Amino acid sequence: MTDIQTFIIEPGTPELAICARWRVDAFSVLKASFEDELRSLELFASDQSRGVGLIAKADGEPIGTCLLVESEIEPNHDVSPWLAGLFVVPAHRRKGAGAVLVRAIEDQARQRGFSRLHLYTTDVAGYYERLGWVVQDHTNWRGLETAFMVRDL
Q: Can you name the CATH fold of 4-152?
């Protein structure tokens, strides 16, 4: 198994543009251009008091990303914080990178004093359940059947 490490995304780094491209390509619900997403991530990365973006690397190459955010886009549940935007490049899926990113975001939440983390998923609730998350509710989010999940830290 490849050694996977996570790093905090810093303003102005090349990883910011990589993450913005991944997010635009993978999350059509964002309805953002690459430029808009890059600006949004740059602003997000410049103030880590409310959240953090992580990037996973294997052998120095970026392979995935995930965010700890204060609020989710138009949430149906008034809670905070959220694990959001987990993405792993297809060639590295099913090799542990997603789990490494989820655990790293959970650690970031603990370090910020949170005891519970939340997420929405439309199609991989089983994956998160294997990582210890629990489906709390099913909801219609932006026209999609969505599982609202929680994890006590």
A: Aminopeptidase (3.40.630)
